[in-house]
Amino acid sequence: MDAKKARRNAKSSLTRRSNNLYSMIENNRPVEKITEALELVEIDYKTVVEKHEALVEKVDDE
User: DSSP characters for 5-47?
Assistant: First the structure.
């Protein structure tokens, strides 16, 4: 199921970027770097939502 793999990959990316953001905050990185990392997390989150909706739509069609 391609939609399932796409969602899994998107979730993995979100997890990695979220962990990176958390690490940056814990290590008192510059605010600019944290802001950039947060923007990437937000993009990944939107991607996960899109991939999830596509998967649910595909499952509903079956």
Answer: HHHHHHHHHHHHHHHHHHHHHHTT--HHHHHHHHHHHHHHHHH
Q: How far apart are CA 27 and CA 57, in angstroms?
A: 41
- Establish how many alpha carbons lie within 13 A of residue 46's alpha carbon, considering only the half-sphere containing its beta carbon: 5
Its domain, for residue 47, covers: 1-61
Domain count, the chain: 1
pLDDT the model gives residue 59 = 85
- For the segment 1-58, what is each residue's pLDDT rounded down to a tens digit? 698 999 999 999 999 999 999 999 999 999 999 999 999 999 999 999 999 999 999 8
